[in-house]
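I have a small job for you when you get a moment. Would you make up a two-line entry for one protein for me to read? No commentary is needed, just the two lines. Write everything out right here, beneath this request.
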Amino acid sequence: MSSPLTERASEPLDGHIPEGDPATAWARRKLDYKLVSPLNRRKFRVIVVGTGLAGAGCAAALGELGYDVVVYTFHDAARRAHSVAAQGGINAARAKKVDNDSLERFVKDTVKGGDFRGREADCFRLGQESVRVINHMDAIAVPFAREYGGELRTRSFGGVQVSRTYYTRGQTGQQLQVAASRALQRQVSTGTVSLRTHREMLDLVVKDGRAQGVVCRNLYTGEIEAETAHAVVLCTGGYGNVYFRSTLAHNSNVTAAWRAHKRGAYFASPSFIQFHPTALPVSSHWQSKTTLMSESLRNDGRIWVPARAGDDRPPNEIPEDERDYYLERKYPAYGNLSPRDISSRAAREQIEAGHGVGPLKNSVYLDFRDALARLGKPTIEERYGNLFSMYFDATGEDPYSQPMRIAPGAHFAMGGLWSDYDMMTSVPGLFVGGEAGWGYHGANRLGANSLLSACVDGWFTLPFSVPNFLASHLGTAPLSIDDDAVRATVEDVKARTEQLLSIGGTHGADYFHRKLGDLLYTGCGVSRTVTGLETALAEIRSLRSEFWRDLRVPGTGRQLNQELERAGRVADYLEMAELMCVDALDRDESCGAHFREDHQTEGGEAQRDDENWAFVSAWEHVPGTPEHPGAPIRHAEPLSFEAVPLQTRNYK
């Protein structure tokens, strides 16, 4: 890596992980936390940004405990958060099936699934609290599927050989989000939580080296508002939409996290992006996003392509001996439930080798023929009925009579704001939860661990760690709204808004966003090369310069203006994309979803370099101009593995 692109910090980054056995780290840390007595809790104000599972859970729990909580969302209601889009299920190490599952196996699967680029101690906390999560969500009326005798039913997900995924048909995220939103609204009604909708966080107020508030824009009126607090929690989701066509809702964005990054919060592993293997393929250039089909479908559906390249016969006319069930062939131990990074790369290999199917030859088949014959239509309908209906609505094709077509699509960000074991970022007082953070998943997330990590963060981690921070600030009031630091941050937001409005170019924000997505899919996608990353980096910088010369935002900032919203988000994506490419170039190995073609085994698998790269890259922002960023500084948090020794992943 050439020096003009990056600088490196000399001292290792401390994750503040309790010393000793990682299996007992969380219990010992909780015992060491400082407490705030019930009579003092209402004296502390906490801002939570985002109302997905992490944000709603955190705000509801802190409100229930008696803290003064202010919650922001840019949606018209808390329940509209993007957590509703997760379909297949939520993992838990409850070991209710007689299939040899356990907490230790959960941790092993998660650490191994992340290709040893996440914190082992974090994974233990995830597994330990997973039992409480399922019990809690069941208690607040999530309608989990049940066995005939009343026990909660489970199924399998990618990267595991046991059944530990709890689900509500194909709408698990939606049902969890509804329950969490109800819990949040209960606190709103009791007065412990103030919910402010239609507000987008545009900056973080930092004074005396710690986070003390946020600046938001009222999306209806355009008014710039500030709020101060003793601590700020960001639960604003992931940044997969940087690729333009992704499985995320089009409003999902990186702005809150990125603005915090520019105020001093380190950004961890930005190039670790998961491509979901069961997204619907792009069918035309005008398409603005891809659609996610749940990984749960891979329990009963079989993935295949025609064995002969270029075979364009209808799928039902291709005989069995002329089909290549390539995942079952290459990874017989896991088959169609191989981890997402491996499954996506395998699909991409088949498509690029000429075996792709569909009108654009850009997909593979997901076939339920055998499952329908074995189990019958009523059983398949019970398990996946709403997903089959969604597929039919999107494509006009009936998956009961012909195979689905799927393809890898940009999906989940394993990277995010760096945080220590207590979920506090490098800016004291700024905490992060859910997909906005980087924890647990390493370089590849196992399916059904995303809903779990958001719930663990929101309900059972942040409500412990945030009060530990607050306890040291008893007797101090939140920063005054008239403080110079607040005023300066508000003026920065106003100036940036006016800058976007005043360019007066010829193209809207989506024009630049679409171009950026094409650059990233090509240069920093499922597979990466040094040449491809360097080319993408140069083209992103050129596009960024064009954006600030030729952007057109109609209207004003003193009204509802969705073009202005998009422009601000795309400006942040252009900066974010550059750091993604820098990170991918800097990490001179393959691991999980970060697949560098110059680092692969003879069998085409990711080849890690544990001697030199067993650490988390956490990037510090260096100011520059909108067109010319400063060279970021890379901090490194070393990773160690005691319970799950370093090993080459093998799913065969």
The mean pLDDT is 96.
